[in-house]
Amino acid sequence: MRLLRLVFALAAFAALGTVSAPMASAGAAAGADRALQREASRLLRTPNGPPGIAITVQRGKRRTFLNGGRAIAGTRRRIRSTDHMRIASTAKAFSGAVALRLVERGQLKLSDTIGQRVPSLPKAWQNVTLRQLLNHTSGLPDYIESPETIARLQSDPRGYIPPEDILDGAAKEPLRFPSGSRYQYSNSDNIVVGLMAQSATARSYKRLLGRLVFGPLRLRRTSLPSGFLLPGPYIHGYDIVPGEAPQDVSTFLSMSGPWASGGIASTPGELHQFMRAYAGTKLLGRRIRRQQRRFVRNASSEPLGPGRNDAGLALFRYRMKCGTVYGHTGNLPGYTQFAAASRGGTRSVAVSVNIQTNPEAGDPAVFKRLRKVYGLASCAALARD
Predict the structure, then answer these.
(1) Are 118 and 193 spatial neighbours (Cβ–Cβ below 8 Å)?
(2) Which pLDDT score is estimated for 23?
(3) Based on the number of CB atoms within 10 Å of its own CB, is 128 exposed (0-12), middle (13-18) or buried (19 or more)?
(4) 47 by DSSP, 3-state: which?
(5) What separation in angstroms does the CA of 283 have from each of 275, 286, 316, 378?
(6) Which tens digits make up the pLDDT trace of 203-217?
(7) Burial grade of 324 (CB within 10 A; 0-12, 13-18, 19 or more)
(8) Given 5, 246, 339, 353, which is the most exposed site by the fewest CB atoms within 10 A?
(9) Binning pLDDT at 50, 70 and 90, where does residue 197 land?
């Protein structure tokens, strides 16, 4: 039964204590820092909450790493900024970065269609554009929800799935709505983005990540595994069931299935470093950033980010009373992620916990408190000393 619950979740801890590494600051930032630390500590003490948390906050050149709880349940080891982890759907920002860099180079166009680049996909999908895939207005059915994908995960969650086979189940279903007519988040979108990038360049998506993202940003601890193993040392991810011992699900699932939609492994430090560049000015030029930031209003990431959510091209805008940041969220068994930065990328935040939590998976009270941490962390990054 627990295996089934974990598959559908895709569609006593020792001394949790308080968050470490106090943030010494002055002015408005001091109050924002204290509020963040208090709320993160409350999250760790919340029933069914995460064993551990890692938070990176940067204001200009000053970066602070906070951690609390445990990287491995039952031990005393805290999460380190260099520990590996699953970054879940924040990996969609990486596939967005690959696609937008190819657009800048003239190897792809935002108006390119699936029919032009991947004609083997269903006829009903042929007129969907790269832009519609990147802002989730494509109408593509979500492959994670298809009976074929669910059956495959139940029978062999660690099995390898070639990229060209990932969408087999979804390919048998009609479009959810006419492409471009409305917004609906779909994991299929970024799988197709990866396939289009491969078609346009005759290079593997993994190689494109290395050449266009990992290499330029010096992300030496970030990778795209094709199996279920994580590079070590890693933050262990857990499934929490009330009344039962936490189950380690770090290597429950092969990352060949999530692939360009959520398969990347990184570290708290490098996820933060990437989003600072992608949401800022260091990875994309001004012209393509203007396209990236044409937002579909009231369109949320999954899980929901802080404040009011709007969808751009593989980038979400989070508008709060304290200001606005741009980034992405993500979750899969064992991990929930959030990373964002200010418009110029000079102020930034990343939050990682080692459970999957969203309004549908786990305890709603835990996700509500985690979302509050997202907002407070973002406001701490935006606060003035």
Answers:
(1) no
(2) 62
(3) buried
(4) coil
(5) 10, 10, 17, 21
(6) 999 999 999 999 999
(7) middle
(8) 5
(9) very high
Amino acid at 338: F
Average pLDDT of span 142-157: 95
pTM of the model: 0.94
Position 26 confidence tier, pLDDT thresholds 50, 70, 90: low
**Tell me, what CATH number does 134's domain have?**
3.40.710.10
- Average pLDDT of 22-42? 84
Angle at 254 between CA 252 and CA 258, to 5 degrees: 115
Side-by-side strand order, sheet with 347-353: 62-69, 52-59, 347-353, 335-341, 323-332, 316-320, 308-311
Where are the strands (E) in the chain, listed by range?
52-59, 62-69, 85-86, 238-239, 247-248, 265-266, 308-311, 316-320, 323-332, 335-341, 347-353
Give the side-chain half-sphere CA count within 13 A for 263.
29
pLDDT at 11: 46
Among candidate residues 4, 261, 260, 265, the one with its CA nearest the CA of residue 153 = 4
Pick from 333, 336, 362, 335: nearest CA to 47:
362
> What is the per-residue DSSP string for 191-218?
HHHHHHHHHHHTS-HHHHHIIIIIHHHT
Measured between alpha carbons, how far is 265 from 9 in angstroms, rounded to an integer? 19
Six-digit token string for 330: 């993500």
Number of domains in the chain: 1
- Coil vs helix vs strand at 22: coil
Q: What is the DSSP string of 112-162?
A: -BHHHH-TTS-GGGTT-BHHHHHTT-S-PPPGGGSHHHHHHHHH-TT----
The yes-or-no verdict on residue 1 having pLDDT over 60 is no
Given a cut of 50, is residue 14 above it in pLDDT?
no
- Domain of 92? 2-382
* 3-state secondary structure at position 336: strand
Say if residue 303 is preceded by a cis peptide, omega within 30 of 0: yes
At 273, list the tokens: 């470093």
